[in-house]
Write a structure and sequence with these properties.
By secondary structure, this protein is mainly beta. It contains 2 helices and 21 strands.
Length: about 375
C-alpha cells in the first residue's frame, strides 16, 4: 500500500499566467517492525493541468466535435488521460510532466516531488454558472506494474485579469533589485512581479472615485436621487450607495437593491432563439423608507464570486437591480386635536394604492489578489489517495 498526498503550496486560488506549484508525497505507511511490511514499487507518476468545460443541454447547443475519430488509447486503463471518466470537454491542458520512473519505497519511507507549471494566460476563468462551467484541476496519475492507472485530482480556482498579458513589468530584469539572502530563481521572481503588476493595475482601476448622481422617477413624477461614488470594483469590496428622498414629489414606501450577475449565451450557441438571460443574486438589501429623507445601503461582493468575463460561448456581466414601491396619492400626515388625551394610538392605513418599478445600473467587477481570495476559499488545497 502507498499513500499519495498532493498539496498546493500557496493555496487554491491563482491568477492566469501565474506559476502553480504542488508538492506530491509518496509514502509507504507500513512500519518496518510489521510482519507484513515489504517494499513497494511504482512504475511511474505523471502530472498535468486541464480545464474541463460543462454545459447545460437545455440552454447551450454546441456544434459537433471536429475530432470524430475513436480514441482507443483513451479507453485503455494503462494510458494517462487526466480527464478520464469526467463529463464535458477538456478545452485546455498543459503538457504532462513525468515525476519519476521506477520508484521503490521501503516500509516507513517517503519521497516528495515538486510539480511546477505556468497557468495559460489566455484561458477562461473558473466559473460555475447556470448554463456553463469552467473547472480547473491538477491530475496526478500513478501506476503499479501490471495494474491500472490511479488518478489523484486537486481542484483549484483561476482568476483572469484582462489586459495583464499586454502590460509591461514595472522593472526590467537587469534593473530589478535582487536579495542575496533569497533564492534568485527567475521563475519565482517573474511570478512575484506578475502578481504585483496585477495588484497595481487593479488598484488603479478601482480607486478612481467620481460622484455619480441619478434621478429616480416614474410616470407620476420624481421619487428621489441616488448617489454612488464609483462603478468599478474588485471582488471582496463593498458597494455603498445613498438615496435622497427629500426632493421627491412621490413618496417611496420601500426599496430593494440586489447585486446580480447576468449570464448570456452567444446567439449561435443558444438552444432556442431569444432564450432569456440567466440571473443570479449575490447580495440583497431591502428597507422601508416612508417618511425617510435619506437612506443608504452596503452590499458586499463575495470573494468566491466570478468577476465579469467573456468567452466565445458565454458572457458574464454585473449589475445593481433596484425595485421601488411608491404611493399613487400623497399620504395624509396624522394630526392631533388640541385637547387630546395623554395616550393615543395611531394606526396605519389598511389599504394603499401603490406603483412598483425597477431600474438596472451596470457595474464592472474585477478580480482581486489571488492570495487574498485563497484565505477564504472553501476549496481544499490538499487531496490524497491510496494505491
Amino acid at each position: 500500500m502507498i499513500e499519495v498526498v498532493a498539496k498546493l503550496v500557496r493555496g487554491p486560488v491563482f491568477l492566469a499566467g501565474e506559476m502553480l506549484e504542488c508538492f506530491i508525497t509518496f509514502t509507504n505507511p507500513l512500519s518496518s517492525f510489521s510482519t507484513s511490511a515489504s517494499s513497494e514499487m511504482l512504475a511511474w507518476a505523471s502530472a498535468q493541468i486541464h480545464c474541463q468545460f460543462h454545459t447545460s443541454e437545455n440552454r447551450v447547443l454546441l456544434p459537433p466535435s471536429e475530432d470524430t475519430k475513436h480514441d482507443v488509447q483513451a479507453e485503455n486503463e494503462t494510458v494517462f488521460v487526466p480527464n478520464r471518466g469526467e463529463r464535458g470537454q477538456c478545452i485546455l491542458s498543459t503538457p504532462p510532466k513525468i515525476l519519476f520512473c521506477d520508484l521503490r519505497l521501503d516500509p516507513g519511507e517517503s519521497k516528495s516531488y515538486s510539480y511546477c507549471e505556468t497557468l495559460p494566460i489566455d484561458g477562461p476563468p473558473s466559473f460555475r454558472g447556470q448554463s456553463v462551467k469552467y473547472v480547473y484541476k491538477l491530475t496526478i496519475g500513478c501506476q503499479r506494474v501490471n495494474s491500472p492507472i490511479k488518478l489523484l485530482r486537486v481542484h483549484f480556482r483561476v482568476l483572469v485579469l484582462h489586459g495583464l498579458k499586454d502590460s509591461q513589468f514595472p522593472q526590467d530584469d537587469d534593473m530589478a533589485p535582487s536579495n542575496p539572502f533569497l533564492d534568485d530563481d527567475e521563475s519565482i521572481r517573474k511570478d512575484s512581479r506578475l502578481v504585483d503588476l496585477a495588484t497595481e493595475l487593479l488598484m488603479v482601476a478601482t480607486s478612481r472615485r467620481n460622484m455619480h448622481l441619478y434621478n429616480i422617477s416614474n410616470s407620476r413624477g420624481k421619487v428621489g436621487t441616488f448617489c454612488i461614488f464609483k462603478t468599478v470594483y474588485k471582488i471582496g469590496e463593498d458597494i455603498i450607495g445613498t438615496f435622497n428622498f427629500s426632493e421627491g414629489d412621490i413618496p417611496c414606501l420601500q426599496y430593494c437593491v440586489s447585486l446580480q450577475t447576468e449570464e448570456s449565451i452567444q446567439e449561435e450557441f443558444q438552444r432556442r432563439q431569444g432564450q432569456p438571460l440567466s440571473y443570479s443574486t449575490h447580495a440583497r438589501h431591502q428597507e422601508s423608507c416612508l417618511h425617510t429623507s435619506r437612506s443608504n445601503f452596503s452590499l458586499p461582493i463575495p470573494l468566491s464570486s466570478t468577476p465579469g468575463f467573456a468567452t466565445n460561448i458565454v458572457t458574464l456581466k454585473w449589475r445593481l437591480h433596484f425595485e421601488f414601491v411608491t404611493l399613487r396619492e400623497p399620504l395624509e400626515v396624522p394630526t392631533f386635536p388640541e385637547n387630546h388625551p395623554e395616550s393615543m394610538t395611531w394606526t396605519g392605513a389598511e389599504q394603499i394604492d401603490v406603483d412598483t418599478f425597477s431600474w438596472n445600473l451596470p457595474i464592472k467587477v474585477l478580480p482581486t489578489n489571488p492570495v487574498v481570495a485563497s484565505y477564504v476559499s472553501q476549496i481544499s488545497s490538499t487531496n490524497s489517495i491510496t494505491l
